[in-house]
Amino acid sequence: MASLTTFFRSKNFSFWFWVLFAYVVAALIWWFISLEKQNIEMTGLRKERLDPSHPAYMMRLQEIDEEKSRNTTKYLSEGITFLILIIIGAVIVFRSVRKQMSYVAMQRNFMMAVTHELKTPIATTRLSLETLKHRQLDKEKQQRVIDNALSETTRLDVLTNNILLASQIEEKGFIQQSVHFSLSDLLKTITEDYRHRFSRRIIDEKIEPEIWIRGDERMIQIALNNLIDNALKYSPDTAPVQLNLRTDTDRCRIEVIDQGEGVFDKEKKKIFRKFYRAGNEITRKTKGTGLGLYLTSKIIDHHQGSLFVKDHLPKGSVFVIELKKHVG
To answer: Which of 57, 96, 166, 224 has its CA 20 to 30 A from that of 106?
Structure first.
């Protein structure tokens, strides 16, 4: 089993798969040629056995030729049918195996990313605690070390929450609570929290007051955190991140705007898949697990909302969440 899995993962899989496919097609063609050759030989033998002096000789000759033609048509139609079925089956199998190989690769990359993401905050927090234990720091430096440790534990908490939530969604164990809450107040709280955690980053907001929705406040917070984390992660440290909240008739619209490298058009739907990470150089060099946007997408779906990304001119991306507004 292990050797078979290794074979499927190898670069030679495509080559040997299509070699086998070519062999099957060649065998099918040889089958047709053999049957047609046999058909011709049988026709010749039947003609030789006819008596030319018999009154029905010409009629029997015509019947033999017609039967030969019918057999040829039958062999050809059966061969074409088999060929079509073989092609369809080969394409389905090839795509399924390639998809599975891609999924396995994404899972492997996810495990590597999670391991790295877990080790970093743990190591940083441990270093901060050891510094506080072994050194006498003045109050300002001590507070800075404590803030750094708290920031890393928050990051660790977000990561573990994402992993647990992804597992719950995968196992159909996602439980959504529905309460009436102020989206305006939630977004303001989130903004202030990020300004405190990332004091060197510029985070601007335009939030309309008194916008209320019905849903799971904790899940919406996780969704918004993932989008803001994404914006901060993929945009330059000096570039601002803009958060907008406005209302339009019976729906409200949240925009998280960054000035990063943007998302290619061909990847604007793929980035919401589980474990998927865009294939550009900036993404590969940036930390991440490929879960954030997937979870955000699932959470918004559970709230009967919509999530999409569009270009921000002249540079960057705009992630948009639209949810039904609730009054009362």
So the answer is: 224
